[in-house]
Amino acid sequence: MPGLKGLRRRSVPDIAVKASDSAAKVMAMKPECVSALIRHYGEAIEKSSREGRTFSFLVNVGPGGDAVAVPVEPTTSKEMENDGELDRALAAARDRGRIRAAEILSGKDMRSADELAKLLHTTRVTINAKRQNGQLLGLDGAKRGFRFPVWQLDRDGKPYPELPALRERLGAPWTIFRFLVQPHDELDGLTGRQALERGQGDALLAAAESVGRGDFR
What average pLDDT does the chain have? Predict the structure, then answer.
């Protein structure tokens, strides 16, 4: 072709030869790595011959030519069966979780956005705005929409002022709900809800801070 005269094109064999030359140099510098690979290869042959099944090993090679061989055991039918059992157990747990969530959301202490708006003498739009900024705890009920625990209102019928701080510390609404209905050692065995009702806001937020950090006591 015009203009390409004298241009030497590198072929695939040329590249392969250079790559093999580089590999040979590295192997010459790392004889112990080559010995280890040969040993693992021999062990795999021996095990395969003795047990009548395939054995594999994975070779991890570093930039400096260091190689580490790691045996790879094949997945047995028993392990595959156990994996199937685990998948079924997880699916069953998710189903139980959905059922339990539906039971909670249909409880007598839950209110819709419209119902809570009437209690607070406001509008549905305001209720949803307060839910989004953490001033109200709303749980997503999918088919039934958001549901609001009525006990998040204090004796004066107003949302507890600690709710936004709980949102900052715990994040997800279901996490906040679980924190409020479960007893805590940091609260002397009280639930978060009971601590709110007893005016122990500071202790409540300290316990939430601990939970948010993942502390275990």
Answer: 79
Which residues does 55 contact at the CB level (< 8 Å), separation at least 6? 43, 44, 47, 48, 71, 74
Pull the structure tokens for residue 28: 């010459």
Residue type, 149: P
Residue 153 phi, psi dihedral angles, 5° rounding = -100, 135
Asked whether the CA dihedral 151, 126, 157, 159 is positive or negative, the reply is: positive
H or E stretch including 149? strand 146-149
Residues 110 and 104 sit within 8 Å (Cβ to Cβ) = yes
Phi and psi torsions of 58, nearest 5° = -100, 135
In the beta sheet, which residues pair with residue 67? 61
- Beta strand segments in 26-104, E: 56-61, 67-72
Q: In terms of pTM, does the model score above 0.85?
A: no
Cross-strand bridge partners of residue 159? 153
Tell me how far apart the alpha carbons of residues 94 and 87 are, in angstroms, rounded to a whole number.
11
pLDDT at 6: 47
**Cβ-contact 60, 70 below 8 angstroms:** yes
Supply the Cα-derived Rg of the chain in whole angstroms: 32
Q: What is the distance between the alpha carbons of residues 131 and 172, in angstroms, rounded to a whole number?
A: 12
* 30 band by pLDDT with thresholds 50, 70 and 90: low
